[in-house]
Structure formats: structure tokens, C-alpha cells
């Protein structure tokens, strides 16, 4: 029993060791992030355009005020046209990914902590961003922070043949994160506690040692195509070693220009986790030598809805308060403009007397 306790403690300590840093990743802190490329036209109206909350609430598309008693802070309602824009973005991304061979998976959003920890995210401690359900009713169950967790968990203790790989999956889910921030530019819908996201995930072999690097590049190329097609002004960052987090060997972030407050805002990331997650979750394949070895996993954001909505609205405003949507979204939105709602769901006055059950 004493020996088993030591083994369990050793495993717990080993699980805290981060992934190996890719030899090409920049070494250092945030200031060492390397700008790989920039594309798109920079807005010249910094500080002159309206922020997404100001224009969205006035036009009747968005509600972020007076939500504290309903959901708590850092929450939002997308109304009418903005709800349609959310669906348009999701469906546009899914169509693009389907053509690239991704299989669509509908994932659970309540997960066991072992799965979340196996993906490299802490479920305990003061700095955890993981929401936990009521332990008395649901044991140790947690809410998923990204569909990457459920997709990785799907392959727990699985063994693949070499012919099974690569596997490319995509999922649409609500992401639940107990994040906090006091930064002015991250207020509104930029950093919220739950939001919709389209995720990419792949499982590859490691016969040549280049498969996961190639998959990561494929994800970056797909992100580039998506954001260029939306007409965004973006830059791609090769993230420095102190910005990788525990599971990533190498990570690239895409940021887009947010002109209302004049800052670069992250809209996606793509990470090569090599065998970090597969070792913890027991996902293996038989290599050419007929030996079991661990697969590599790669994940990336295709569409983080609130931040793309924010970027589209801030960069495409018209003088009359409407927003001209990117052309690729017109068939999905069934229109080209976000227009001011004639009768908004925001027009009611807030009652001075809260409702109580008699």
C-alpha cells in the first residue's frame, strides 16, 4: 500500500511536467513572440468607430447590460440578426472544414476531471479556469472549456492501426471558462465565461517525426484562409516558450485588429501537443514495426464566435449604423447587412420591482 501510494504520488508529480519545447519555438516571455506574417487592411479610424457593445445594444442586436441577476457578469445575449450571424459564421466554417476532410462530432460538455487534466488543464487550485458541478450531486464532473477536451477524451485508451491515421475532427460547442480580467479592452464580449466555438482536432502517427508539424501547418493554413476571406486585418504569432502552456510543444496565435479600442485581440490558436495528451489518455497506434507507440494530437480554433463578431462589426460599420458583412457570409446570413432593428428586444424598461414568488 505504501509502495502504491508513492507510485501514485510520482505519477501526479510527473503529470505536472510540461511538454518539450519545439526547437524552433522562440524562448522567453510574451515580448519574445515572433510575428510570422501580417495581412489585411488596417483601419485608419482607431477610436472613431463604435465598439461592438455600443453599436450592438443601440441597434438591438446585443445585450450585455442588466444580465448580472440572470447569468452573472461577462455574459451576453445575441439577438435576432446577431444570433443569425453566429449561425452563419459557424456554418461557413463547418462547410470549409468538411471540404478539407474533417468529420463533424457533437461532443458532451460535462467531463470527468481526469480527461481535462489529461489534456493539460488543471481542475484544482486558485488559478484553474475550470467550472465544477455541485460535488454532492455530480461527483467530480466539470464543464468543458473547449471541445478539444471531449475530442481528446474520445480516444482514451484506444489503439489504432497505422492505416487509421490521420484522423481530422471538428466540433461546435459552448466553451465554459472561469476567466477574469480587469483590462478595459477585454470587457464586453471579448472575454466571457461561456461562448460558442468551432474547434479543429487531429490525431496523427509519428513515423517520420514530421506528421504533427505538418498537421499544425495545415491548421494554420486553414485559419489563414478563413480570416482572409472575412476581410480581417490579422497577424500570426509564433508563441514564445513561456506562453505555450503545459500541453503545447509549439503554438501559433492569430490576432486581429480591434479598431474601437485600438488593440490586437487574439481570435484563434493552433497547438502541436505531440504525445503529451496521448500519454496521459492512453491513445496509441501500431507503427510500421508493429509496436505500440503514442499518437500525436493537434488542436486549433476555427471560429471563436464572439471575437469574430466583434472584429466584423468594428471593421465594417456604415454611417447609418448598419454593418456590411463579408461577402462569403451573405449566402449563410441570407443578406449582406446588419441593420438597426425596428423594434428591439432591448426596448423594454427595466422593472424597479424584482419578481418574487408569492
UniProtKB/TrEMBL annotation:
One Gene Ontology BP term is:
seryl-tRNA aminoacylation
One Pfam family this chain carries? tRNA-synt_2b
Q: Which Gene3D superfamilies match?
A: Bira Bifunctional Protein, Domain 2
Which InterPro entries does the UniProt record give? aa-tRNA-synt_IIb (IPR002314), aa-tRNA-synth_II (IPR006195), aa-tRNA-synth_II/BPL/LPL (IPR045864), Ser-tRNA-ligase_type_1 (IPR002317)
Where ATP binds, per the record, is at 177-179, 192-195, 266-269
Domain Aminoacyl-transfer RNA synthetases class-II family profile, by residue range, is: 95-326
Protein name listed in UniProt: serine--tRNA ligase
Which keywords does UniProt give here? Aminoacyl-tRNA synthetase, ATP-binding, Ligase, Nucleotide-binding
Q: Which organism is it from?
A: Octopus bimaculoides
Where L-serine is bound, by residue? 146, 177, 199, 299
Group of enzyme by EC: ligase
**The family this protein is said to belong to:** Belongs to the class-II aminoacyl-tRNA synthetase family. Type-1 seryl-tRNA synthetase subfamily.
EC numbers for this chain:
6.1.1.11
Q: Which residue positions does UniProt flag as site: Important for serine binding?
A: 301
Upper lineage ranks?
Eukaryota, Metazoa, Spiralia, Lophotrochozoa, Mollusca
Amino acid at each position: 500500500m505504501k509502495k502504491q501510494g508513492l507510485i501514485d504520488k510520482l505519477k501526479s508529480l510527473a503529470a505536472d511536467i510540461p511538454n518539450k519545447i519545439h526547437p524552433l519555438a522562440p524562448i522567453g516571455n510574451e515580448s519574445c513572440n515572433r510575428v510570422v506574417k501580417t495581412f489585411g487592411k488596417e483601419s485608419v479610424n482607431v477610436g472613431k468607430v463604435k465598439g461592438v457593445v455600443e453599436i450592438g445594444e443601440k441597434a438591438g442586436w446585443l445585450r450585455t447590460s442588466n444580465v448580472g441577476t440572470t447569468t452573472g457578469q461577462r455574459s451576453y445575449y445575441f439577438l435576432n440578426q446577431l444570433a443569425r450571424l453566429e449561425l452563419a459564421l459557424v456554418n461557413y466554417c463547418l462547410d470549409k472544414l468538411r471540404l478539407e476532410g474533417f468529420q463533424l462530432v457533437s461532443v458532451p460538455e460535462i467531463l470527468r476531471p481526469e480527461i481535462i487534466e489529461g489534456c493539460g488543464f488543471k481542475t484544482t487550485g486558485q488559478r484553474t479556469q475550470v467550472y465544477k458541478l455541485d460535488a454532492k450531486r455530480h461527483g467530480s464532473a466539470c464543464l468543458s472549456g473547449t471541445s478539444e477536451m471531449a475530442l481528446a477524451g474520445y480516444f482514451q485508451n484506444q489503439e489504432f492501426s497505422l492505416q487509421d491515421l490521420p484522423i481530422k475532427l471538428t466540433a461546435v460547442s459552448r466553451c465554459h471558462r472561469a476567466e477574469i480580467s480587469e483590462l478595459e479592452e477585454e470587457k464586453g464580449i471579448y472575454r466571457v465565461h461561456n461562448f460558442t466555438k468551432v474547434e479543429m482536432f487531429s490525431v496523427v502517427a509519428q513515423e517520420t517525426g514530421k506528421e504533427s508539424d505538418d498537421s499544425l501547418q495545415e491548421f494554420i493554413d486553414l485559419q489563414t484562409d478563413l480570416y482572409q476571406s472575412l476581410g480581417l486585418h490579422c497577424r500570426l504569432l509564433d508563441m514564445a516558450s513561456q506562453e505555450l502552456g503545459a500541453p503545447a510543444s509549439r503554438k501559433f496565435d492569430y490576432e486581429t485588429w480591434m479598431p474601437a479600442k485600438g488593440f490586437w485581440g487574439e481570435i484563434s490558436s493552433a497547438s502541436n501537443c505531440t504525445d503529451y495528451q496521448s500519454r496521459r489518455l492512453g491513445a496509441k497506434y501500431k507503427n510500421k514495426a508493429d509496436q505500440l507507440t503514442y499518437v500525436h494530437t493537434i488542436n486549433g480554433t476555427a471560429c471563436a464566435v464572439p471575437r469574430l463578431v466583434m472584429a466584423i462589426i468594428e471593421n465594417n460599420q456604415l454611417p447609418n449604423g448598419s454593418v456590411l458583412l463579408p461577402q462569403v457570409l451573405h449566402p449563410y446570413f441570407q443578406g449582406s447587412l446588419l441593420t438597426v432593428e425596428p423594434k428591439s428586444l432591448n426596448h423594454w424598461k427595466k422593472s424597479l420591482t424584482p419578481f418574487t414568488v408569492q
